[in-house]
Write a structure and sequence with these properties.
- It is found in: Membrane; Postsynaptic cell membrane.
- This protein has about 750 residues and is of the alpha/beta class.
- It is built from 23 helices and 23 strands.
- Strand 4, helix 4 and strand 5 form a beta-alpha-beta unit.
Length: about 750
């Protein structure tokens, strides 16, 4: 019955029928470690283990437990107990991994050597969290080293007394009294008795109680209950009633000094009474020592050791580590792209009169927020404007930059080669178009509701109906009978026109045929006036729309020639155009820069172009006031930070970006840089009809007025001539009188 053998292979009852143990096995320790990871939301680790049965067995069961609980063992490193050194380069192995949780599965004899190597490689706190399988004295390390050791955890088996559960205190005190009676010089304080000593006592007590129970069942009490086969060799002798004795051990139950003791026929481990404690290396009152902070049992899992228990994590932090690599203190070479207003290059003069380049905008502000939150050291460089967006990922692949931050859209093509962070800006594409001039003047716009053929037909019908009125009404209608031919024709035309437009005239038809013809005119009036009014309103509404397209669907349907569509080469808008519009035909007008895009629009080289929504809104509101946006956004996506594939610090960056987004800082930046407006507001589109639309109608009315006046003067020509002659005579008389 063992008090210290934790090898998981020894749990196999079939392989080891005569073996029992009171110490928890490594199987239980692996399960406790898994639950510890789940408690703190850690997902992966690196295991360092010694190259013997203890190390191999431990790493095996921990790996199996991790796999069963969807956790990851990122790497396994060996400490060679023969050479007393790591087989791998510890610094390279740990710093190149994305996990920052290290499980050190070595005996206490070797733990100090591994920690010394870790100190030399600078892979302890505050960047790494170490979990040891045994507590060791760390007094040999200096003060500076102790600061890096703070936050180390140890996980060890313990007894029920540590967890304040039931133990046999009567038996324990009796054992202590015997110890103090016979060897008082070796007895430590009861609080300093090693837990393995209690496991050893329970192992011994289990043997004693089992033998006692076994002997009490012996039928023939005259003979000894312990019988062995006779053999001259010690190793050839065996217990005659061993099976009965094993049954006795399997069925015995008692409360030991480490907790309840009970076994069964299936495994060699005790059924209950497996406990663990986590101790945390802390600094208090200028002293560093291990402090119990968590306790574990099979029934309750991990719980706080006491109400006052506080874990001090690496770096003297009270916040549990995420388990991933942190950017704190890491130097980052950051490439950024000049793109107004994401990154604006300005020149400022310092106090010494020197002109310096200063970067402002959404991206520099975002870098400041991330730096303050994460603690990295940025080295910001402006990327050459000759580099297209499609080539930015290659700069990160070639390690020219650690990350690139800008208005870079996350696409499937780019994601295949590089990684992106969480979105830093929600984006879509917008159609950019130059503002069109006001509606062109059309003198005869009021005639557009009807075609020329229909107008000619209406004129013909008017003439035809007038002739019919003359024929049908001249004899019966008193007002027409006395008129001359010319007046008769004019009055008939007037009658037909008045009824055709729904106005009516000052005389009425007298014949049945005339009334029937008038009814026909009324019907024509009803349909023609209603149709004209509806079409005129529609034409006037359409004329209010100054743009030849209303959105992306019009471009897809071909309302604009493809060679009149400007596309920035090497951007997400090019990918969209090729995939969604041209079926991968490069029939567009290629553009190399945004400046070229807007100049091409203004110079009428292209009609439209595509641009990211945020930049397009800023440009049209602040820079190019005679350029406008058409329709709603399309091809919705997001901008992300370009990072290398499987970047160590990807999770840390993502968590902090999400934190900024949830706290509203990204929205504040967006309002700061994208809701600025310097262009004057364009006149609001009015629904009222302008003079220019109906100018031709007023010109015709003016001509009619002039004709009416001329007609009036023509009819009054005799009177005017007479008046003129009389005036002339009067003037001559006055002249003669004045002469005399």
């Amino acid at each position: 019955i063992s008090h210290a053998a934790t090898d998981p292979d020894l749990s196999d009852r079939n392989a080891y029928p005569a073996f029992y143990r009171t110490v928890p096995s490594d199987n239980t320790a692996a399960l406790a470690i898994v639950k510890l990871f789940i408690r703190f939301n850690w997902t992966s680790c690196i295991i360092i283990y010694q190259n013997d049965a203890y190390g191999f067995g431990g790493v095996k069961v921990i790996t199996e437990a991790f796999i069963h609980n969807d956790l990851i063992v990122a790497d396994k490193l060996i400490f060679d107990i023969t050479t007393q050194s790591m087989r791998d380069n510890l610094k390279n192995a740990l710093t190149s991994s994305s996990t920052r949780i290290i499980i050190l599965w070595t005996e206490s004899t070797y733990t100090s050597s591994v920690l010394q190597d870790a100190l030399y490689s600078d892979v302890l706190g505050p960047h790494f969290t170490w979990i040891l399988s045994s507590t060791v004295s760390l007094n040999s390390f200096n003060t500076i080293s102790n600061e890096k050791l703070i936050g180390i955890l140890t996980i060890e088996p313990t007894t029920g007394n540590t967890l304040h559960t039931s133990i046999n205190t009567t038996l324990l005190n009796a054992a202590y009294n015997i110890w103090k009676q016979y060897e008082p010089e070796t007895f430590p304080n009861s609080k300093n008795v090693d837990d393995y000593a209690l496991f050893a006592f329970d192992a011994t007590w289990t043997l004693i109680q089992s033998l006692k129970e076994f002997c009490s069942k012996t039928i023939n009490s005259s003979s000894t209950c312990i019988s062995f086969s006779n053999s001259s060799s010690c190793f050839d002798r065996y217990f005659l009633d061993s099976n009965l004795f094993f049954d006795t051990i399997n069925n015995i139950t008692f409360l030991g000094v480490s907790g309840p003791i009970q076994f069964n026929i299936n495994v060699t481990d005790r059924i209950n009474g497996s406990y663990y404690v986590v101790k945390n290396y802390q600094s208090s009152l200028n002293r560093q020592n291990f402090v119990a902070v968590l306790k574990y049992s099979n029934h309750d899992g991990w719980q706080e050791y006491s109400e006052t228990s506080t874990i001090i994590w690496p770096g003297n932090s009270l916040i549990p580590p995420t388990g991933g690599a942190k950017l704190t203190g890491v130097k980052l070479r950051i490439g950024i792209i000049e793109s107004v207003p994401f990154t604006i290059v300005t020149t400022v003069t310092n106090e010494f009169g020197q002109k310096l380049t200063k970067l402002i905008g959404y991206i520099p502000d975002l870098i400041d927020l991330l730096q303050n939150k994460m603690g990295f050291i940025p080295n910001i460089e402006l990327i050459s404007s000759n580099i297209t967006y499609s080539l930015l990922g290659q700069l990160v692949e070639n390690r020219d930059y650690d990350i690139i931050i800008g208005d870079v859209t996350v696409t499937a093509t780019r994601r295949a080669k590089i990684d992106f962070s969480q979105p830093i800006f929600d984006n879509s594409l917008r159609i950019v178009m130059r503002q069109t001039s006001d509606v062109d003047i059309d003198l005869f716009a009021f005639l557009n509701p009807f075609t020329r053929d229909l107008w000619l037909l209406i004129v013909g019908i008017t003439i035809f109906a007038s002739i019919l009125i003359c024929l049908l009404e001249r004899e019966k209608n008193r007002k027409l009978r006395k008129q001359s031919i010319i007046n008769l024709c004019v009055m008939s035309m007037w009658y037909t026109f008045g009824n055709l437009v729904g106005y009516g005239v000052e005389f009425h038809v007298r014949t049945t045929a005339g009334r029937l013809l008038t009814a026909g005119l009324y019907i024509l009036c009803l349909v023609l006036v209603a149709s004209y009014t509806a079409n005129l309103a529609s034409d006037l509404t359409i004329s209010k729309s100054k743009n030849i397209i209303s959105g992306i669907d019009d471009i897809k349907s071909g309302k604009i020639s493809f060679n009149r569509i400007g596309i920035l080469v090497g951007t997400a808008s090019e990918e969209y155009y090729l995939k969604e519009i041209s079926s991968y035909s490069r029939n567009y007008y290629p553009l190399k820069s945004r400046e070229e895009m807007y100049n091409s629009l203004l110079n009428n080289l292209i009609d439209v172009s595509f641009h990211d929504a945020g930049v397009a809104e800023y440009i049209t509101n602040n820079v190019y006031c005679n350029v406008t946006l058409i329709g709603e956004g399309f091809d919705k996506g997001a901008f992300g930070i370009i990072t290398p594939k499987q970047w160590l610090y990807g999770q840390d960056l993502d968590v902090n970006i999400l934190s900024l987004k949830e706290s509203g800082y990204l929205d504040i930046l967006r309002r700061k840089w994208f809701q600025v407006k310097r262009c004057s507001n364009p006149s609001v589109t009015s629904t009222a009809i302008g003079i220019e639309v109906l100018s031709g109608l007023f010109i015709i009315f003016g001509v009619i007025c002039v004709l009416s006046l001329l007609l009036f003067l023509w009819k009054k020509r005799k009177v005017l001539c007479k008046k003129s002659k009389q005036l002339k005579d009067d003037l001559e008389s006055i002249s003669d009188i004045s002469h005399h």
